[in-house]
From TrEMBL:
GO molecular function, one term: phosphorelay sensor kinase activity
Domain of life where this protein originates: Bacteria
Full-protein interval shown: 196 to 446 of 446
Lineage: Bacteria, Bacillati, Bacillota, Erysipelotrichia, Erysipelotrichales
Protein name, per record: histidine kinase
Domain Histidine kinase stretches: 41-251
Subcellular location: Membrane
EC number: 2.7.13.3
Reactions accelerated catalytically: ATP + protein L-histidine = ADP + protein N-phospho-L-histidine
Cleavable signal peptide: none
């Protein structure tokens, strides 16, 4: 179509259609590419813990466990099985969210109340790391679904605790700025500038080994992004490596 327009100026009125077709085509190609990447990543991510489980079990079966190492072997098997379970749960959740485009079950909810409930559940995780967790702000009412909203806040607060230092701080702040805003801010390890736009990709982690140690799947922020989209909301990330991270959701 673009070629025809170039050849004959009479086709000028078709330019907007040509542009629309091109941008739709690009979107389809990108979606197909991201589906391909996702499938490849899923197989890789599932195979890693399964191979470890199978390897440790084989050594036990063949009585090849070094003296006094039984407990260590059992621990490795349990940790890899947990990792597999977390991965499967998150993959299923993402696939459910892929089919949740409509928000017909949305009701009026008090954002601060929901955030406080999430924080009181996660207080124990914070205490284990000596991280202080506070939640405050104004009473903002938004249209949402309780389960989805809590999942969104919980994923952000869990990360803020997990990627924090001992004696760190996490602040959950609700306020109004042309609409309800949720901010989750920590003073932890932060995210380097050059990868900040990648952390919302499925399975992307800044530090694979750290995320693995803490039981991360690399899918938390992809789930968050999905939930934000279902709300027609916007998400913003502000971070400086070594200083902390703030994630802002504008409803
Ligand atoms: P994970 O399960 O690995 O935590 P997420 O999708 O939740 O996966 O996050 C992707 C990556 O983004 C994490 O592995 C981590 O490297 C980085 N990240 C997320 N939140 C924070 C944070 N608050 N501070 C520093 N890094 C973070």
């Amino acid at each position: 179509l673009e070629d025809s327009i170039g050849l004959d100026p009479g086709y000028k009125e078709l330019i907007p259609f040509a542009n629309k077709i091109r941008s739709q085509h690009e979107k389809i190609i990108m979606a197909a590419k991201s589906r391909q990447d996702f499938t490849a990543n899923v197989s890789h991510e599932l195979k890693t813990p399964l191979t470890a489980i199978s390897g440790y079990a084989e050594l036990i079966e063949n009585k090849m466990v070094p003296a006094n190492q039984e407990v260590y072997f059992a621990k490795q098997i349990r940790e890899n099985a947990n990792r597999l379970l977390n991965l499967i749960n998150d993959i299923i959740r993402l696939s459910e969210l892929d089919h949740t485009k409509i928000h017909s079950d949305f009701v009026s909810l008090h954002l601060l109340e929901e955030a406080k409930e999430v924080c009181s559940t996660l207080q124990i995780n914070a205490q284990k790391k000596n991280v202080s967790l506070v939640c405050y702000g104004s009473d903002e009412v938004i249209l949402s679904n309780k389960e989805l909203l809590k999942e969104l806040i919980s994923n952000l607060v869990q990360n803020a605790i997990q990627y924090n230092n001992e004696n760190g701080k996490v602040v959950v702040h609700i306020y109004n700025e042309n609409g309800a805003v949720l901010s989750v801010k920590d003073n932890g390890i932060g995210i380097p500038k050059n990868v900040q736009n990648r952390v919302f990709e499925r399975f992307y982690r800044v530090d694979k080994s750290r995320s693995r140690q803490t039981g991360g799947t690399g899918l938390g922020l992809a789930i968050v992004k999905h939930i934000v989209e279902i709300h027609d909301a916007h998400i913003e990330l502000i971070s400086e490596e070594g200083k902390g991270c703030e994630i802002i959701v504008r409803f």
